[in-house]
Amino acid sequence: MKRLHWNQRKTKQILVIIVFLLTNFAVISLLSTIYYEFNSGADRSNLLHIDLKFNNYYLPKINIYTENTEGRKLNEEIIKNIREDYIKSWYVRKYALQNNDAKAIEDFYTDSAQVKIKRIINNNAKSKITIHSTSLNHNLNIRFFSEDGQVAYVNDSKVHEQTFFYQQNQLIHQEKTIKNYKAILLLEDGFWRVRHLVSDTVYKPEKDTVKTKDYPFNIKGINYYPQKKPWFKFWNAYDSLVVNKDFSLIKKLGLNAIRIFIPYEVFGKEKVLTTHLNHLKTTLDIAQKNNIKIIVTFFDFYSNYEVLDYTLCDRHLETIITHIKNHPALIQYDVKNEPDLDFKIHNKQKVINWLDFVIQQVKNYDKNTPVTIGWYAPESTSILEKKVDFISFHYYKSPEKFKDAYLMVKEKTNKPIVIQEFGRHSYNSIWNLYSHSEKKQAAYHKEMQTNFKSLGVKHFVSWTLYDFPEIDASIFGRAPYKTGPQKHYGFIDVNGQLKPSSKYIIPYAN
Fold first, then answer.
1. Of residues 175, 182, 139, 135, the one with CA closest to residue 157
2. Burial degree of 489 (CB within 10 A; 0-12, 13-18, 19+)
């Protein structure tokens, strides 16, 4: 009897092990399939309709009108479904043409409508052409909705689009257009699918405007982070008391402007966090209280320059700018910090196209505040020079060579020039062969300010107010030869004492 019980127990154990192994095999197989789908080139074509239900890949600005709809009465659910599937149809078509992948369109276009798109894709694939495009807005007027609830006729007016044509990864043509579209949608298998989509009227986009060639306010500023909460911590652990204390000190030092940074992800990307918007508004209020002007730098630590993500950037900009554009402390927008450092990694032309788009949208939301680009190199300042109101560049080289760099920039523009970052660290260690010191840092700033005076430089923003006891390892790593210099660019040391360089933070009167 004991032997029988032992056999039964043994059998159960074997069955449990078999079930466990089969379950793990099934899970691993499922994960392998998912991994394959997302890494085999079919990541968004086979699973695109699933992704679109849970992710916002495409967020153009949308207005929808139903006041004059003929036919069956619309309810909110139907309007919502038509709106969402129509906009998704635009995204999948743009995605398909960018990747020459016809599978992406199947859920949002009828069979007959797919024929034309597939023909374009096949021709483009043979010629090694890809079309990178996005729409920025849609004004939908549902003109007709059938009694059986299966057909909708939509007018989509004044759609702003940006399109870039590439052949073998080289830009061959680009265009900005404003078009009217007419679309017929059919309800099939739970999706509103496009049956026909045609455009008729084409409008010419308005020309970009430049605010001024002369600026009455001389910017004598500083790039700012709180000493104990630099970079991302500034916003994630915001302290208005510290900001107020620092801004008051900056004013006492004789400066009149501060440059701050808006990290794209920290601020919530396309869905800007209300908490951080409030922190930004508080910062502007504190600046106004201290009679200081603010330069707002967008898209810090952002590097996705793909056209299909333009609408996400647009929502980010719209939310922030509409929130702050009328604030009296706001003096300037900087659309991106040192974008020319991304040229090699992310394709120079793509970066420039993205900058052009961002400038256009900033000016669309605020027609009064000047716009600039925070170039790293003086040689980059001629790029998009006609689009911006200020020319800004950073300078960390020898003061002896500054004159040549400045005159080179000045020769190519008649717009105001801002030396938007400059400085020298005082980190003195074996890593730099003890070649830096606070004394040498002071000599650098003295010589730079002498240069500014002799060359008539009206606008400068130094780097930075404080030495930092700690900096973010996720940004700079942990190597002392990298973190050491970054911690020691300030005019004030970690003990709160003014360094010798502070004597030259502003050596001549306004």
1. 139
2. buried
Q: Which residues pair with 35 in a beta bridge?
A: none
In the predicted model, is pLDDT for residue 263 greater than 50? yes
* Separation between Cα atoms, residue 465 and residue 458, nearest integer Å: 20
Q: What is the pLDDT of residues 77-87, one digit of tens each?
A: 999 999 999 99
Residue 40 has a pLDDT of: 39
- Taking the C-alpha atoms of residue 314 and residue 33, their distance in angstroms, rounded to an integer, is 35
Please provide the DSSP assignment of 172-189 as one string: EEEEEEEEEEEEEEEEET
Is residue 371 left, alpha or beta, with left meaning phi > 0 and alpha meaning psi from -120 to 50?
A: beta
- Within 13 Å of residue 499, how many CA atoms lie on the same side as its CB? 28
Report residue 265 as tokens. 């992800």
Query: Is the N-terminal amide bond of 209 cis, ω within 30° of 0?
Result: no
Could you count the other beta carbons within 10 Å of the beta carbon of residue 145? 23
Are the CB atoms for 232 and 263 separated by under 8 Å? yes
Q: Model confidence over 437-457: pLDDT tens digits? A: 999 999 999 999 999 999 999
Contact at 8 Å (CB) between 135 and 160? yes
What is the C-alpha separation between 257 and 463, in angstroms, rounded?
Answer: 13
- Report, as an integer, the average pLDDT of 459-488: 89
3-state secondary structure of 240: helix
> What is the DSSP code string of 389-425?
SSEEEEE-S-GGGHHHHHHHHHHT--S-EEEEEE---
- Of the candidates 257, 323, 309, 266, the residue with the CA atom closest to the CA atom of residue 287: 257
Tokens at 386, concatenated: 């006609």
Would strands 129-135 and 151-167 be described as parallel, antiparallel, or unpaired? antiparallel
Give the residue with greater pLDDT, 25 vs 427: 427
What are the structure tokens assigned to 122, written together?
């096949």
Q: What angle do CA 179, 159, 73 make, to 5 degrees?
A: 105
Residue 108 reports pLDDT greater than 70: yes
Closest CA to 480 of 436, 428, 438: 428
Cα–Cα distance measured from residue 294 to residue 332, given in angstroms and rounded to the nearest whole number:
7
Contact 47, 34 (CB under 8 A): no
| Cα distance between residue 364 and residue 162, in whole Å | 15
Helix (H) or strand (E) holding 439: helix 438-455
Contacts of 357 (CB under 8 A, 6+ apart): 162, 310, 313
Confidence check: pLDDT of 45 > 50? no
* CA–CA gap between residue 212 and residue 415 (Å, rounded): 8
Q: What is the mean pLDDT of the chain?
A: 88
Label residue 159 left, alpha or beta by phi (over 0 means left) and psi (-120 to 50 means alpha).
Answer: beta
Mapped onto helix, strand or coil, the DSSP state of residue 385 is: coil
In one letter, which amino acid is 201?
T
Give yes or no for residue 189 having a pLDDT over 80: yes
Q: Is the dihedral of CA 125, 129, 132, 133 positive or negative?
A: negative
Tokens of residue 285, six digits: 């209020």
